[in-house]
Amino acid sequence: MQETYAVSWRHGTDEPSSGRLELARDGLAFTNGSTTETIAYGDLRSVHVGRSSAERISGRPTLVLERRTGEPVRIAGVGHAGIISELAEHLSSLLGEERVMSRAVVVLPLREGASEQAAKLLRGGPPFDPQEVGLERHHVFLTESEAVFLFEAASRDAAEKLIGEGRLWSAASAWKDLVAGPPRVAEDAYSWVRLHVPDDVSFAPTPGPGDSDGGDVF
Hints:
Blueprint: E1 4-11, E2 17-23, E3 27-32, E4 35-40, E5 44-50, E6 62-67, E7 73-77, H1 82-95, E8 102-109, H2 115-123, E9 135-142, E10 146-153, H3 158-163, H4 166-170, E11 184-186
Antiparallel strand pairs: 1-2, 1-7, 2-3, 3-4, 5-6, 6-7, 8-10, 8-11, 9-10
């Protein structure tokens, strides 16, 4: 049996819901009456404690979950404000630095018969220094008709901002005779990441007077 907490939560600008939150093995399960919704840990980009009044639920301490897909979800404890600090600690341990990365994918259509020349260009490496421009990872996947560029940076939205800079594309002038049309930015429509839970991470509430300073457990 997993530990559960009494919370309120809010998707984007929707009306808040109240019920219980379960920190399950694969995600956060929100239950309101007979309805349960689960947000996978792999769908989380980052978490932070809301500081502004706009981020809080009814003025209470609130944890903001930034998702890879969908609107942010805000969580506030019912009865005990300490729930939020506990959740922030647990989720930060689970996500680690890797989950904070931003990702951008660009699809470049190629002219017929240009894939061989594109492969030759790719073997020579990118026309820029990936480390200098702030990338953590950079991959290119090649088919007969397209080149798919993957950019990953360590800070949120950094990759998206990078691909919008003119200096990145001006450095790729060698590709101009190979392309069949303008590059397209692919939408991150779905992501899944296997969760690796460290042995020293516990989902139990922090010990304290009664059940926990972190919140009601039931």
